[in-house]
Amino acid sequence: MKTIEREGKSTSSIISGFMKEHNLQLEDFKFEVVDAGKKGFLGIFSTKPTRVRFTMPDQNDTISEMTRAFLQRIGIEFDNIRTTENNDNYQVDILGVKEAGFIIGKEARILDAFQHLLTQMVSKKERRQLKIDIDVDGYRERKNDQLREKLEIVTERIKKTGRSYTFEPMLAPRRKIIHQFVENDPKLQTMTIGKGDSKRVVISVAGKKPLPQPANKSHIHPHKHVPKDKK
Amino acid sequence: MKELIEFVVKALVDDPATIEVTEVVGDKVTIFELRADKADIGKIIGKKGRTAGAIRTILNAVSARQGKRAVLEIIE
């Protein structure tokens, strides 16, 4: 639960303003009038504003609860769930998972599906689109660290050889890591090829037209990874 | 399994009361028939079928662990 206090001219105007501000309906929160305020002469000189205290469920708690309920129905045992918020992005960490491999799945497909569903479910409840990232015992963090290590090696090689490098298809959060990594290097550039779930990032020397080369032969789909603007 | 599908789908739609899941048990495959209000079907399927795809991914994973196969059919 979290508590917020607001001041204003009248109880009703404070409440309607608060509901608008947080996109709430009456059943979403509780309120109490802390100070009824004092109206001045003829209502012109308001000497003391009205104060209302609102109590509503903390979003972090809502998300943790939903995650817990979902995992229990899937039949996953775990020790703890920790939800943190940063700039309206929510990070859910599921800790001490017994069958981490199962809930993560091959190439994190099950975890991605779980994350997508949970995001939609919580967004529906909160009546606004939220961004929720779910990690299981630091799995994604480890994967991202590995990607950064790989980027160190790959970018060095591109600078040495002048040849571009094409990554395997990745989802947006992982592609973003590559873009951000290269962003700070004026000698290199990135571009994205492919569509939907088969988007890949290509790193090449800045100002040079890249020749995409498959990073991994198992991902070759003829005609699929060739960028549109290639002759 | 039926409860898992209901839990997810009811949290996605405007009208949870209209959600109905029936289980058709076959020899090898169990079919889950999901019925929902017409207005809610889009929310269950999602953009480019992503939400329905995610439900099926979870459903397949959970049933595979139990040594079964499951299919989700969405019926208007």
Write a brief caption for the model.
Chain A is an alpha+beta fold and 231 residues long. Chain A contains six helices and nine strands. In chain A, 37% of the residues lie in helices and 23% in strands.
Keywords:
heterodimer, A: 231 residues, alpha+beta, 37% helix, B: 76 residues, GMP Synthetase, Chain A, domain 3, three-stranded mixed sheet, 3 helices, 3 strands, globular
Write the layout of secondary structure elements.
The complex is a heterodimer of chains A (231) and B (76).
Chain A: E1 2-8, H1 11-22, E2 30-35, E3 50-56, H2 59-74, E4 80-86, E5 89-95, H3 100-104, H4 109-126, E6 131-136, H5 139-161, E7 165-166, H6 172-183, E8 188-193, E9 200-205
Parallel strand pairs in A: 5-6
Antiparallel strand pairs in A: 1-3, 2-3, 4-5, 7-9, 8-9
Chain B: H1 2-10, E1 20-25, E2 29-35, H2 38-45, H3 50-65, E3 69-75
Parallel strand pairs in B: 2-3
Antiparallel strand pairs in B: 1-2
Question: Mind explaining what this structure looks like?
Answer:
The complex is a heterodimer of chains A (231) and B (76). Chain A is of the alpha+beta class and 231 residues long. Chain A has six helices and nine strands. Chain A has a three-stranded antiparallel β-sheet. A three-stranded mixed β-sheet of chain A has the order 4-5-6, with helices on both faces. In chain A, α5 crosses α6. Chain A is elongated and about 80 Å long. With 76 residues, chain B is of the alpha+beta class. Chain B has three helices and three strands; from the N terminus they run αββααβ. Chain B has a three-stranded mixed β-sheet, covered by helices on one side. The longest helix of chain B has 16 residues. The model of chain B has no long low-confidence stretch (mean pLDDT 95). Chains A and B meet through α2 and α4 of A and α1 and α3 of B.
Query: Tell me about the biggest sheet of chain A?
Result: 3 strands, antiparallel
Class based on secondary structure composition and strand pairing of chain B = alpha+beta
Largest interface: A-B, 20 and 20 residues
Give the SSE string of chain B.
HEEHHE
Report strand order across the widest sheet of chain B. Answer: 1-2-3
Mean pLDDT of chain A: 87
Return Rg of chain A in Å: 25 Å
Rg from Cα of chain B: 12 Å
How many structural domains can be distinguished in the coordinates of chain B?
Answer: 1
- The 3D shape of chain A can be described as elongated
Percentage beta strand of chain B: 25-35%
